[in-house]
Structure formats: structure tokens, C-alpha cells
Write a structure and sequence with these properties.
The protein is 46% helix and 14% strand. The radius of gyration is 16 Å and the shape is globular.
Length: 212
């Protein structure tokens, strides 16, 4: 038997970049886009209708960690979430390769910690951190590993230090890519297909459903 960690009336906030954004509405909070956030909300609302949970999506395409910090009051703290789910980091790597814009890992980690410090001090919300990930399609994505892997390590350290739930998405996608071609899960190595979004949603739900 499973037990859902999300309490009655919980407000769950999804934060991140385009993977989280997934075409969400800016006018209607109940239109969460076509990605994993919507899948999670739909599945949990159907499975636990009596919990009366609210799901909010504030992902914005193209965001790096610094962008989250600039809008953290309005798009996180002021929303009074009970749980905050964050997937960020791939654009901090991507911008280095497409425009030469650096995001040093030490700064990335320090900025991430400032965000979580505010959550703990100003809202006390539970934390769910999702690793950034990349698959080797097209082949030049392989070159991104040297820049992305230290960010993944940073997210793991942060999750440990803040006692957050960690979703090891880079490993999950790598394992999935042994069963089907990487492009099946994410055509450009970054943005998930519907199957890729479902993979994230399954991992997310599994992480907050405790068996026993």
C-alpha cells in the first residue's frame, strides 16, 4: 500500500525552464502545459481526488538559475507553496555552447542554495529537486557532459544538504536510452518527447508515494 506525502490541500509549485514550461498558460493556472507537470497533476488528482490539491506551473522557457532568482519572490514565495519542485540547469550549460555565456558551477550552486534558503526561511515548503539531464542526440551533445556533469553533482550535494527529495533524471534517461533510441525520449537531447515527459512524471510520483 502506498502513502502520498502531499498533504490535504497541498499547493505544489513546479519551477524551471522550457521542460517545465511546456507551453503552459500565463493567464490560467489550471492550464499547466503539455509536459510532466500536467501529467503529474492529472494523475494525482484522479488518484487522490479527496486531497483537494492545487498544482501551479511557473516554468519559463530559456531560464537559467539566475533567472529563477530574479523572479523568486513573485513566482515562488508569494504563491505560498507547500511543495516546490525544481528542474533547472540545462540552459546554464546550453548558453555556454551556443553563445559563450558562462555560468560557473560554483555560482550556479551558490545561487541554487540562496533560492532554497528563502524557501526554508519564508515558506517551509518541502523540496523536490530534479537533476538536469542530456542525451547524446545529436552527437555533439556528448561535448556538453564536461559542463553539465558538475552541475548534476551540485544538485545532488544540495539535495543532501537541504534534505530534499532527489529525482536522478540524468541516470533515469540514460537507463531508458538503453531500451529505445535516445531520440525516442528527447529528439534534441534536452526537450522530452511525450514518452520522456511521462518518464519524468512516473519518477516524480514514485518519489512522493511511500510504500508501506
Amino acid at each position: 500500500m502506498s502513502h502520498l506525502m502531499l498533504q490535504y490541500g497541498a499547493r505544489v509549485l513546479f519551477q524551471g525552464d522550457s521542460i517545465t514550461d511546456a507551453g503552459r498558460s500565463r493567464e490560467h493556472d489550471d492550464q499547466l502545459g503539455g509536459g510532466y507537470a500536467n501529467m503529474i497533476a492529472a494523475w494525482l488528482s484522479a488518484r487522490y481526488p479527496g486531497r483537494n490539491m492545487t498544482f501551479l506551473n511557473r516554468g519559463i522557457s530559456g531560464n537559467r538559475i539566475y533567472d529563477l532568482e530574479q523572479r523568486w519572490s513573485e513566482d515562488c514565495i508569494d504563491l505560498e507553496p507547500d511543495w516546490v519542485s525544481i528542474l533547472i540547469g540545462i540552459n546554464d550549460t546550453w548558453r555556454y555552447f551556443d553563445s559563450g555565456t558562462d555560468s560557473p558551477v560554483a555560482e550556479f550552486e551558490a545561487c541554487y542554495r540562496r533560492l532554497l534558503d528563502r524557501v526554508k526561511e519564508e515558506s517551509g515548503a518541502g523540496l523536490i529537486l530534479l537533476e538536469p539531464f542530456v542525451l547524446p542526440t545529436p552527437p555533439d551533445r556528448v561535448n556538453w557532459r564536461a559542463n553539465l556533469d558538475p552541475r548534476i553533482d551540485a544538485v545532488r550535494r544540495i539535495a543532501r544538504d537541504y534534505q530534499a527529495i532527489l529525482l536522478p533524471l540524468d541516470g533515469i534517461f540514460s537507463a531508458a536510452a538503453t531500451q529505445r533510441d535516445p531520440a525516442f525520449w528527447t529528439p534534441d537531447g534536452v526537450h522530452p518527447s511525450q514518452a520522456g515527459h511521462a518518464l519524468i512524471s512516473q519518477a516524480w510520483i514514485h518519489a512522493i508515494e511511500v510504500t508501506g
